Amino acid sequence: MRRSREYDYRFRDRATRIRAWGIGLLSVAALLWTWCAVLLLTPYEADRKPDDRYPRQCESRLFTDRSTANEGLYRGDWCENERDWPEALAVLALSVPMSAAGVALFTSGTVARQMSAHAEVMRDLDKLTDAPKA
Question: pLDDT for 105-114, tens place per residue?
Fold first, then answer.
């Protein structure tokens, strides 16, 4: 019986570590989503030359209607090249496998821990029902 309980505790510790890895991966994915949001939603500045004292103010990439962020080269203000779409999409693409792996690890760790706790309670209940009545 003691060996079974020790194995169960090691199983729960392993499940807790797996769950913690899932939380870590989900945290990394959340940081990547935040970075993508910053790239797409915040206004920014574009230098026309190195150490430009008066950089061009550019609108955010997402909330612009054919203005500085999208037509910058036509008007010569360099906003279009400062924050490219591929960078934001690469960050977004990197977050997808991180999120999927994080969810899988978190879920499997949580389910394993809960099943182990349930099995222990069921064993204790079986002991109570099998015990001789006085």
Answer: 999 999 999 9
